[in-house]
Amino acid sequence: NRSSQTGGAIYNTGNLSVNICEFSLNSSRHKGGAVYSTVTGNVKVHRTRFNKNYLDFATGQFSNPYTNGGAICSENRLEVVNCILDKNRSTSGGAVWASNKLKLINNTFYNNEAYLGVAAPGLGGAVEYQYRGAGEVNGYIYNNIFNSNLGINGWALYTAGASSQLGVGLIVQN
To answer: What is the CA radius of gyration of the chain?
Structure first.
């Protein structure tokens, strides 16, 4: 599947639950190679694989060179549990880009890439998390495996403005 702007397979504005699925070879030009969720959307993804989804700046919006979330881009609440995210690509958040509440539990992030584009930073080879609120802890990242991810800043994880809890996990060869 291919979207001319956002959400290669799914564009979400409400409550979305995904369980035991596979998203492969989806793409869009700007946000969410497979799944895009707006500021009004909530996403829960369990036991799902995201493989080789990507955002393509070369055919995207040249006025905005940032591409967010090779597999998933969420601008509200995102929960990802027991998933495999491998070989996804974008300029920010090779696999996942999130900007509000985020839970990542028991996932494997393998060989994702946040590549350097024209004026784009290559943030978070596997995950970029940009929290725009204040106060409470809003990011929970527990028991995940990050292996062989590539990014210019934050080869596995890049967080900004976030108060996150990083639990037991394994970060190797990023």
So the answer is: 14
For residue 174, give Cα distances in angstroms to 110, 150, 151: 9, 6, 8
Q: How many CB atoms lie within 10 A of CB 61?
A: 13
Residue 27's contacts (CB-CB under 8 Å, 6 or more residues apart) are 1, 2, 3, 8, 33, 53, 54, 55, 56
Measured CA to CA in angstroms, residue 96 lies from 55, 107, 143, 153 at distances of 12, 12, 16, 15
pLDDT tens readout for residues 55-111: 876 544 444 566 899 999 999 999 999 999 999 999 899 999 998 889 999 999 999
Distance CA 142, CA 7 (A): 26
Cα–Cα distance for residue pair 69/57, rounded to 1 Å: 12
CB 57 within 8 A of CB 30: no
The conformation of residue 39, written as its DSSP 8-state character, comes to T
Neighbour tally for 49: CB within 10 Å: 15
Nearest CA to 69 out of 130, 144, 13 is that of 130
pTM: 0.90
Of 104, 116, 118, nearest in space to 157 by CA: 104
